[in-house]
Specification:
This protein is of the alpha/beta class. The protein has helices at about 5-25, 40-45, 50-65, 85-95, 110-115, 120-130, 140-155, 165-175, 205-220, 240, 260-275; strands at about 75-80, 100-110, 180, 195, 225-230, 250-255, 280. About 45% of the residues lie in helices and about 10% in strands. Helix 9 links the parallel strand 4 (about 195) and strand 5 (about 225-230).
Length: about 290
């Protein structure tokens, strides 16, 4: 039996196939080589032929669609607790395969995203805002503010990226020291693009507003932000609920990163975010499976 999920996956593959027809018109098919499958792509759809075909097809044409889309662009990757590490690795490979450079991988901790730790987040956010001065919006809520502060440290509104000042670098040190962010090393470059990868379902009491606030704050600090989740996160899932919030006009969203097609769509959304904010893409995105304009 063909499930609704399989139908959506096949629909995305067909949509990508139409786009590839245009791309291939400009060059010989013999130039196309099969990419080395990522760990996530290797197992994706293995239980059924339709899913395996959709995954293989998207994996084969993905490099054509994303080639040089992120050339000379930097991306900061921020993950939420509970993210699938194989999927995160596959996403990172897709970004670098498109010519992008990942400036750092920053993991939000449980303390950052659970309502019970709001007091800690609020207190530290207030202290850091005072140190940063007018950089942070005075009307920001607790999690919008902490998102902006994280953004100040790892992201920039300069399209070419830039190096953080000592004051900006001190923010990430404080967030790590307080146990709100996990990151090893130092931030040598701030990226114009931020990829926020969702993990476990947020807490039922206030969890959605935490995610929305952090995404909104990052959106104020970067040229473009893409919030990405699995197919299950779309529809009535956490990404679907985020799309109903005002922040969806400022950040792009993609559901389906647990599929090869969804990871291709994520890279295309990152590229689009350099010039256009917002947009809902993926298996249940209102703006289509992927931005191809």
């Amino acid at each position: 039996m063909i499930t609704f999920r399989h139908f959506l996956t096949s629909l995305v593959a067909v949509f990508l196939a139409l786009a590839v027809g245009i791309v291939l018109g400009g060059g010989p098919l013999s130039d196309v080589t099969d990419p080395e499958p990522s760990p996530a792509a290797a197992t994706e759809g293995a239980a059924d032929p339709a899913g395996a075909y959709a995954a293989g097809f998207a994996g084969a044409v993905g490099p054509l669609l994303t080639s040089a889309k992120l050339a000379d662009r930097e991306v900061a990757v921020v993950s939420v607790p509970g993210v699938n590490e194989e999927t995160l690795t596959a996403l990172a490979e897709q970004v670098t395969g498109a010519g992008g450079t990942i400036t750092g991988r920053y993991s939000l901790t449980e303390a950052m995203v659970v309502p019970e730790q709001k007091s800690l987040v609020d207190t530290l956010g207030s202290q850091l805002m005072t140190q940063q001065g007018k950089t942070i919006a005075a009307d920001a809520t607790t999690y919008d503010r902490i998102g902006q502060l994280l953004g100040v440290a790892i992201a920039t509104t300069t399209a070419e990226g830039d190096a953080p000042s000592s004051k900006e670098s001190a923010v990430i040190d404080s967030l790590v020291g307080a146990g709100l962010v996990s990151f090893e090393g130092t931030v040598s470059r701030r990226a114009p693009l931020v990829l926020l990868v969702l993990g476990s379902e947020p807490a039922a009491d206030g969890g959605d507003s935490i995610t929305a606030g952090i995404a909104a704050g990052l959106g104020r600090a970067a040229v473009g932000v893409v919030v990405a989740g699995t197919i299950a996160d779309g529809g009535e899932g956490q990404l679907g609920r985020l799309r109903a919030e005002p922040v969806s006009a400022e950040v792009a969203t993609v559901d389906g990163i647990d599929t090869a097609a969804g990871r291709v769509a994520t890279v295309l959304a990152l590229s689009r975010s350099l010039s256009t904010k917002g947009g809902a893409f993926g298996a249940s995105g209102a703006d289509g499976p992927a931005p191809l304009g």
